[in-house]
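#struct-help
A.M.: can someone run this one for me? Single chain, 179 residues.
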Amino acid sequence: AEVDQYIVVHILLLNHHHMGILSLSPSRSRPWGREDQLAIEKLKRNRRAVDGYLRKMKTTIGKGLVLKDGICCFMHGRFVVVIEVPDSDPCKAILSTCVYQIADPKRTNIFKKCSKWSNLHEGIDGSSLDVLGDDEVNFCLEIPLEGNCSYHEFRDRLVAYLKSAVDINRALSRMDTRS
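D.P.: on it. Structure tokens below:
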């Protein structure tokens, strides 16, 4: 079941984040330019940085994570958490997880709560809460990597993200069972 969840989340992320990928294939319609080379160097540099942060965090989150091809995932409780440095935007790391499965898609209170939570959620800049399809609530966080994103800042934002995912799940679970 965990593998199936990972595959579903991974496919959703690929569909969501990889629009406008910088093509690395040899069948490009135009020659490689300086701008392309700089983008590829930035992507590699930022992926190495995030990979280093994840390896260093082994004691913090209890996992030996490796960013393979710009993406990795791990289990946090019942959540499959995906971390990606996408080809399409190498200046950010994207954290994503499904925080809730809506039991009855007709429950508009859940959708309103998600919208309100997404608009008013404090403490985690760059986060969003989206309803995918009719029943899946997805929590995402974008962490800018350019400039001064240190290991400690990345770790603190990841830990806050994981705590928020659990809090959101609890809040939505309470709402869904009430009505």
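A.M.: thanks! The chain has one domain: 2-18+33-178.
D.P.: also worth noting: The chain is about 45% helix and 20% strand.
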